[in-house]
Design a protein that fits this description.
The protein is 62% helix and 4% strand. By secondary structure, it is mainly alpha-helical.
């Protein structure tokens, strides 16, 4: 005799769901579940199931869909905006190993083609541009940029002087306010045009004393004078006079 299949009504399904929720929230039930899941054999089975390729892919898809939900984004935004959450993140990333890991991941992530496209589209949004202009125009932001530019410039020049010397290779001037980089074989103007603001970083990376040297501004400018042949006036005879009609030297600086 065939057994008739019982039909579960929506009300009964809701009742069962409510009962299950209430049952799972009981302290004794939670304790039993925790004790069960902490067993070595259960942990091993769970790990084996988690490591299955199809389960990994399923989790990845679900997480992607879950994080894309508007309500999830709102919950995460509210949670991340809490002072205790900010303090916790700050403490976590203040550790060198965590900061290095974050930096390495960001470098790898933003090198991906799809990330570059998304970032470009995001920065092109009118509201993002307006927000950026607003933030950049704030006095504190201007002060931070100025402070950063100053500290960055000091660190760059320190590296250059450590490699090429802390005084003028011609006259011996050692006041760093008067010193600059000179291209020994010429081509400074061309390289500056091609590289632009990365010139001093390129000088550091080259680490080549046969190509670059430190000169004071007087000696550096003197080498570019007309009719001088790329020689500093300090090294010319005392009776040498500047020729206004000679062609300008363009190979130095």
């Amino acid at each position: 005799m065939p057994v008739s299949k019982r039909i579960i009504t929506p009300e009964e399904r809701a009742r069962r769901k409510e009962h299950g929720k209430e049952y799972e929230s009981r302290p004794d039930v939670k304790a039993r579940k925790k004790e069960y899941r902490n067993r070595p054999e259960v942990k091993a089975i769970e790990k084996e199931l988690r490591d299955l390729p199809e389960n990994k892919e399923r989790r990845k898809e679900y997480q992607k869909e879950y994080l894309a939900r508007p309500e999830t984004k709102m919950i995460r935004h509210e949670r991340d905006a809490r002072p205790e959450a900010k303090a916790k993140r700050k403490e976590y990333y203040s550790k060198p190993e965590n900061a290095a890991r974050k930096k390495e991941y960001a470098k790898e992530y933003y090198a991906r083609p799809e990330a570059k496209v998304r970032y470009k589209e995001y920065r092109a949004m009118p509201e993002v541009k307006a927000r950026k202009r607003e933030l950049s125009s704030r006095p504190d932001a201007k002060a931070r940029r100025k402070e950063y530019a100053s500290s960055y410039s000091i660190s760059i020049w320190k590296e250059i002087f450590d490699i090429y010397g802390w005084k003028c290779a011609c006259c011996g001037e050692d006041n760093t306010a008067f010193l600059t980089v000179d291209h020994i074989g010429g081509g400074g103007r061309k390289e500056r045009t091609e590289i632009g603001s990365r010139l001093y970083r390129a000088v550091i990376e080259a680490n080549d004393p046969t190509k670059y040297q430190i000169l004071c501004f007087n000696c550096n400018s003197g080498r570019a004078m007309r009719g001088i042949g790329g020689i500093c006036p300090h090294k010319l005879p005392k009776n040498w006079r500047f020729d206004l009609h000679a062609p300008l030297q363009t190979g130095s600086s």
